[in-house]
Amino acid sequence: MFWRSVVGKLWFTFLLLVSFVLFVLTVMLLEFFENYHIKESEDNLTDLASNISHFIEDQELEIGLEISWELLDDITGAMVIVGEKEPYYSPEIESSLELPVSFFLKDEELSKVLTEQERVRKIIEVSSSKNNKNSRVLVIGAPIEKNDGEVGAVYIFQSLQAMQKTSDSTTKFILLAAGIAIILTTIFAFFLSTRITAPLRKMREVVFEAARGKFDTKVPILTRDEIGELATAFNQMGRQLKFNMNALSQEKEQLSSILSSMVDGVITFNRDGTILITNPPAERFLQHWYFDLEGKAVEAEAVPQDVMELFQWAVDTEQEQVGEFSVQGRYWVVIVSPLYNKKFIRGAVAVVRDMTEERQLDKLRKDFIANVSHELRTPISMLQGYSEAIVDDIAETTEEKKEMARVIYDESLRMGRLVNELLDLARMEAGHIQLTNEKVEVHSYIQRIIRKFQVLAKEKGIRLLYDQYLDDAIGLFDPDRIEQVLTNLIDNAIRHTPEGGEVRITAKTDEKWFHIEVSDSGSGISEEDLPFVFERFYKADKARTRGRSGTGLGLAIARNIIQAHKGHISVQSKLDHGTTFTFLIPRISG
Ligand SMILES: Nc1ncnc2c1ncn2[C@@H]1O[C@H](COP(=O)(O)OP(=O)(O)O)[C@@H](O)[C@H]1O
Ligand SMILES: [Mg+2]
Are residues 374 and 502 in the same domain? Predict the structure, then answer.
């Protein structure tokens, strides 16, 4: 763990560096010390040797030797050979340095002092018998030439052990320095670890948090160095990221809320045709489609084949494609346009619109025109036929002519009524219905309307009855409009009731409403026709009889009037037993 950390690596590197530098330093120092020491010793010993040789040359041998031995210190030994005599060794010589004469004479270089009167210097390895250790010895030889012509040599030798000691102490010193360096490096490493690793670790935690989507945590700025700057930069980045993420998610939310609150369905496709996004209306469309398939195995992500074809077309032609489908009795228009990723098509977006109402309106409009034309055609052809008959003098008697003129008159009345009702209805449906509300004493008001029909009812042999539970109730409504409704209802009832039947008008009231009921014992309306009687132009009795037959607009107008009064109209009927129309208007209208 420690080795993996930055500080560990730094620590190790520093250690390696220090060790390396110290090692090189040691080697160089030792080399330098040795050379220096040997040079020094050589110079000293050479001086010494020439001094001794001078003494021995100038003085008596005994005295010369005496003086010479005085010059030597305790680590230096000397041996003097003069002529053929036994060699003289300095008295305080170390046993290890007691080299035999033969040693000097056999050595090719050292023997040159005697043979060729040369000065020599040499470092020799001497193995001491005591501890089996080789010690190096520096030997300096100088020739002696006495006045009497006798020749000899002086060899001075010094062990280089002393130098070993110096280098040993140097090594020790360097080791100590290395130890201190290591300790210092370690301390330095710990210092670094608080200054570098700790903030780095903090930063790492925060980065992980940020990766998990938490941008709020801040990196503490512990130092003012690059790491501190890094922390500042990181905090800045976090802020920026948070800001950007917020902006992004806001945008996304906006987009999704736009998508979900759209009335039109939206489906986005991948290039390969898989659905990426849908919104609720689009899902409704797909649901309808799944339902239509009724159990046929489809994948959940499947799209109607026709839509898929449109998608393929859009992708292939790179152009918007429009298609229309009817699913579950509803009409859908699908517009598929390609989605670009720079220059390439990366999919397509389909906008699905429920056009059912528009289609129904279209149909209604067409039907309306057809109905109006149809309604007008009958009276017009009658007018034409009868007027032609009069012009061509087909009628012979005045009676017949009168009869024909009567038909023409009736039909023109019917046409006028139709046009008036149409206008009325059109105005109402366009929202132009104007109510002139008045206070009305309901009981006498209804009585008055019923009175209008008494004659007609008597003519047809129908009993017209009136039940009321009103107690002088006063209503607030548009009396002319409500009269229009009641007139139509009673007229219908009388028209559809055979002789001997009865039409009963009942008026009641409660706290909120006036209930007015027109029921008859007439032909009734069949169950299939019942839901449609309030539609304009709807006629349950398809046979259009001349004269008093209606236009099919009366109930549509009645419903409009009642709705304008915030009331309610309904019908109950049983074929061949009778029909009951009930309407409710609020007691306080308005
Ligand atoms: N009381 C009723 N009994 C039987 N059928 C009725 C009655 N009232 C209305 N209808 C049916 O409803 C249709 C629509 O009535 P309405 O809108 O008043 O048109 P219109 O009276 O001009 O024919 C009538 O054509 C008739 O077939
Ligand atoms: Mg009518």
Answer: no
